[in-house]
Amino acid sequence: MKRNLVIITSFGLISVFLALIGCENDRNSDVICKNNPEICADLHQDSWCRFEKGDLIRHRYQLKQTADPSGKQLYQQLIYLETYSKCVELASGVQHILNPDRTKDRKRAYAVSTQTLSELQQHTKDNPDVYLAFYRWIRFNDKDSQNLVIEKYNAGEVESVEILSQLAASFVRQSPQKAIQVYKQLFDITPFEQFDPDWLLGLAKIYQHQQDLENVYIFTRANTLLAEHQVNEEQILALINNDTMLAQNLDLKAEALIDDIQTGNFANSSSAELLSDNKPDE
Fold first, then answer.
1. Residue 194, CB half-sphere, CA atoms under 13 Å: how many?
2. Model-level pTM?
3. InterPro entries, from UniProt (predicted)?
């Protein structure tokens, strides 16, 4: 089946969806390759791009055990393929003096990986799954796919932090109140270790456009505290007319915002009131 060939390679290798032979619980990529040679036959042999190759191998192994891969799984395979292909492209430019066959092997692997990636992209180009629509949007700036992702979001079908983050960024200028809603959702659902300080800057941009300079101050300050960035104190104080008493109060709010995000208590905190919904889009 063409779908199966796309996952592994275009060179007629055995499908990644072959029935699982035996019980293989070891996730070590070398063991996987030994017991499932079709998974690794199109990859380069030496230790370059070890992590990228390992991720790709393990994900292919997962797919081998999946009769009907989800859109999310296919999206992940696209990302792993991209990452591997980029790495082996760089490796293929390194000439191995003592063993030139290694260089040839990397070049072969790069050529195969680009073809495999292209085939999988083609295979999924009409798939309406939100992850695959998201991929087409961010990789090819496909407007129809972007609209599909927005439709899925409006229907309450988007829970991925990665997709929500991209949606929020895209809404900042055209639909700021919708962007605020998405950022609020991100603050509610994202574990602190996955929290992106750039979301705070996105909110600062929105409130700067709305001339809500106190909120600009709060979210800018929170970003600098969370990301440990240096800030020009003169510029940030200029937002509030150099009112140092007000700055002390806003600094406390910025610190409380970070605490509420860190403890997972944002939704029920006073910090959530910063993201008000009472301002119309402009």
1. 11
2. 0.84
3. DUF2989
Number of helices followed by number of strands (H, E) in the chain:
14, 0
Q: Which long-range contacts (CB under 8 A, 24 or more apart) does 99-106 make?
A: 102/44, 102/45, 102/46, 105/44, 105/45, 105/46, 106/44, 106/46, 106/48
Q: How far apart are CA 203 and CA 179, in angstroms?
A: 8
Of the candidates 186, 206, 208, 207, which has an alpha carbon nearest to the alpha carbon of residue 197?
186
Which tokens hold the place of 56?
A: 């790709």
Q: Enumerate residues 6+ apart whose C-beta is below 8 A from 97.
A: none
Domain segments of the chain as ranges: 2-124, 182-274
- How do residues 202-259 score in pLDDT, each as one tens digit? 999 999 999 999 999 999 999 999 998 788 899 999 999 999 999 999 999 999 999 9
Buried b (16+ CB within 10 A) or exposed e, 178-217: bbbbbbbbbbeebeeeebbbebbbbbbbbbbebebbbbbb
| Rounded-to-integer distance, Cα 43 and Cα 106, Å | 8
